[in-house]
User: Fold this.
Amino acid sequence: QVQLVESGGGLVQAGGSLRLSCAASGRLYSSYAMGWFRQAPGKEREFVALISRNGGITFDPDYSDSVKGRFTISRDTVQNTVYLQMNSLRPEDTAVYYCAAKAGSWQSTRQSDYDYWGQGTQVIVSS
Assistant:
């Protein structure tokens, strides 16, 4: 089992920044992918970003078109933590952000491919 705990959400003005953290514990695989998804009010949950590794190799991250150039996903292997740096935030970024993990380094933007999920952290961007 893998446990994921997100933190770092909050209220920010448009144009501002936030950094989300996802602390992973439990039985971590040497080859896995970590993703961030979000769900806005009244909408389906959608892919935001992902990062994967296979042993000591970290692959290039992937981003949704809506956040590319503004958000950056990174990981700290010592702390078993994945971060999502969000800059130039917009009101449409308002959502609950979820961290997810899957075994295997192959990259996937599909929620159904992820085995473990955190409880989510709320991000509100005011205009």
